[in-house]
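Re: duplicated header lines in exported structure tokens

Our pipeline writes sequence and tokens for each protein into one text file. With two proteins the header for the second block appears twice in some exports. Here is an export where it did not happen, for reference. First protein block:
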Amino acid sequence: MKNPNPQFEIDALRQENEALKKELEILNKADVKPDCKDYQKLFMSLSVGILIFDEDFIIREANNKMCEIFQVDRNFIIGKGINKMEENKVMAAFRKTKNGVSGFYEGEYITKSGLKTYISAEINPYIFSENGRQIKGGIATIIDITDNKMAENAVNKSFATFQTVLMNLKTAVYCVDAHTHEVLFMNTKSLEIFGNQTGKECWKALYPKKIKICAKCSLSIFSNKNKTKDTFLKRKDIWLSHSDTYIEWIDGRQAILVTAENITETKRARSVIENQNKQLEQSLSTSIEQYQKINLLAKQLKEDAETKDRIFSIIGHDLRGPMGNIKNLLDLVITDFDNFSKQQIFGFIDPIRHSAGTAYILLENLLHWAKSQIGIIKFEPEAIALSDVIEETVSLISAAANSKNITLDFEDENDFIIYADENMINAIFRNLAGNAVKFTPSGGKVSISTKKVINKGIVNVEITVKDTGIGISKENIKKMFDKEQYFTTYGTKNEKGSGLGMILCKEFTERHSGSIKVQSTENKGSVFTISLPEKKHKAIL
């Protein structure tokens, strides 16, 4: 680094000195005497010290500023020898005028009172006139540079302190000329990392393969916004975090102050942490998957337990009634068979048949539902005649319908062929038709019809089961398809169901990619409509 040298005031005084010399030469040529009033006024008011002396170094004239600098009385020094007031080191500069050359002195001066000052003295040969006689002597211009010298010393001291601080930082610090790219300064840490590159172009010396790091000190950096970037110094196998900002260098140049901190350990630690985080994420992901599997298994176990409880409930309650009726009636007939007439025995057979039919339907539903819950029921679709399935269903429920004097109406002239699982379709129709009979009072009617519906190019067959029964409220329609509730009500002759029938109808219909909908008005009857694809389709698992 170059040391600062504040010369602004000194240079101004020297310029004033040069102007004064020219003025004296003009006055001398004009033979202006020293006691001229205009000359005297100008001479005495000058801001630099002036001393005129003859060939014997006798002081012939001195202005106020000179007396102020040397702290002497003007009347005391006029006519006295210069060697009486000047130090020997200053006197050497005066003696050079004897040889017709100029002398110069700049440095420390001790006044008569012992005060230390700093002066800059320039002594030149000078010929002046006095009483018509030419006198060869000299003229000295003296400037008090004490304040400037003290300021310079203070700056140098501050600069030295600043430099000492920078040199001892553990962070690399260097400064670069923003225009020439010259490295102006490097502290100890930067020397350790990069070697001494002072005076060289930074982008060549510091980062020969990393030109983009500073874009050759683009002047856009003078926005004075601090910028930070991380770079990898391959030759040292280290990572550095660079931060740069605009500063004005000590000589006024635009420069970039760069700090480079070694973050290699931080980078390594971050890499270790990132790897650990990845491992933790993987472990967490694995744990979540296992937790989800456990939850799914727990849910399945809960559902299996509920299925088991439901099966036992149906067996213990819903089947107990019809089977108990059959047993009691048979016991009664067998015990007193000889006491009953043939007509009375036929009267016992009808309720036995009704109870057996109820038990059969319950067992069928229970079997299908249990298989569907544990996932062993198979879906085996094939081409079947829809009318055959419906007629079989009508035949099964005709006894129950006759016992309640209910009219069963089914005439099918369409002869639809559908692609379906026959066992599931039988279960659907058996439940729909059986419920229609169960909830229709004596003298009512149950109608079954079919038709083809085309929607957006898709052909479906709709089977409608309509009754004139007691109907279903809107609230109960929502409940009967809810497998969590197993909703059921008693029929018109107190027929009891398990709540499984409508759930099976919904599940089996959806397995066929079909749909089921209900329209019902309380005390007027219900309409159940099943929509099934006519052609082969993919099963919904």
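Second protein block, exported in the same file:
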Amino acid sequence: MAGRIPQQFIDELISRTDIVELIGEYVPLKKAGREFVACCPFHDEKTPSFTVSPPKQFYHCFGCGAHGTALGFLMEYEHLDFVEAIHELAARANLPVPTEAEQVGKTRKDHSRLYEILERSARWYRRQLREHPAAPHAIDYLKGRGLSGETAAAFGMGFAPPGWSNLLDAFGKDQYHPLLEAGLVVEKENGRGYDRFRNRIMFPIHDDRGRVIGFGGRILDEGTPKYLNSPETAIFHKGEGLYGLYQARKALRKLERILVVEGYMDVISLAQHGIPWSVATLGTATTQAQLRRLFRVVPEVIFCFDGDRAGREAAVRAMENVIPEMREGRHIRFMFLPEGEDPDSLVRKEGPEEFTAKIGNSIAFSEFFFEHLTGQTDMTTIEGRARLVELAKPHIQRLRQGVFRDMMLAKLRELSGTDTVQLRSSGNKTTTKRALRGKKHVKSTPSPLRLIVALLLQCPRLAELAGRPERFQRFSGKGANLLVQLLELLQANPDLNAGAIVERWRDQEEGRYLAKLAGWTPPLEDEASLEAEFLGALIRLEQQLRELRTEELLNKAQQHPLSPAEKDELQRLLSRNGE
């Protein structure tokens, strides 16, 4: 649940955060009885269906189903992960975020020294760009690329001077091993080291929290490789990182789309020309991990490639890599530049308006997918159309089950001219669930157990009326286990609100169940009525428990003789059930 951040701190953070005040900074809320309402920030609507409950410290949209706590709202609205949201709320409450001591027998390395040496190195490289005798050559290069000093400073650009040990000499021998661990020093066979980056423009690479995790370096003058990245380290993974994403999120509070380009200079030049929403991969083809990271931030990703053969081949590789991440609600497009141009040169030549217009004319994923495959066969013949089916089916099979895959399959049938194209059966649970959801919902009386949990979320202090939680352990199933845990939690912590309770089970199946119940508002709002409803549900639950236990003992008696204690228990149950 809480990971390395103590649960007690998370509880305190939730209790100190006023969810109405927090959400009110993003959405205009209006008082409506005991709650606040607004048009939902997560889907388009004209009539408000988004409610925020101060007692529960919980929000719920009756239109799209979005719901959660203050932490959940920040994660969804600001596209933060759990730890980032914790730090954001803690900063608002002026609280330092503590971490638990590592568990015995587990080794989770503290990377604070690694972050520190990388940040120090970034500052040192920036200083060299201002002060080193060889810096004018680097500055002339940047000016020749049309970059301003303000833009270079915004991206933290620096300069690694010529020479084998400038960084090593500046930091001293005692920092040799930290620099080696950070990938900034290369060790030779004789055990001595030298600077990895020499005579290069330096591009610090940041994580989502703005910490430097690695560097890219562009050679000045002649030399290879033209671009050099930090090696893989404990905190730098090329298949996961994205250059410029941190700056893009800083520049625009709410990103709508992201342009993926190939070069760091492309990202910086586009930002200077008023297009601050581009990123670059770290010298590799786009991975599924990078795409998942992007889709956490935006619903639309546009890949930008050169218009030559190499660019088309790169686009095909990207298309094949991202297929498992495609689904309804996610949009991928492909943009191809004129031959001989890159984003940097084109935006300087044509200007941001013309460049943005070209982005608008980019090709949708589905269009590029079928365009690529139909180009490999003769669509005027039966054999060619059959070949298309053979080529397309393995790729469509990799798509996640849902509307998008169904529509891609329908398009394949249309192009091939046959309705008989089928995918391998994989138990289409998604379709079955969707069909069930489409049926008219029939209201039913909630089970006593479900009602008890819902009332506890509405008024946590009711837990003190439930008696010993362990008496419900004889129920089988997750619901009974959750009830026992919930009662134990609230009897020990009666001041927790619904938001804090839900956070205890974050990212678990029980958490989704609790979040759904937390959005329910009982028809009776006064505490006396809630108590009466709660006690009545407890009585009905206990009756169910007796009936289940009775049935269990009767079934057992048909198979094996009961023990004297079981016989006495069955006699008591039968007499009570007959009352």
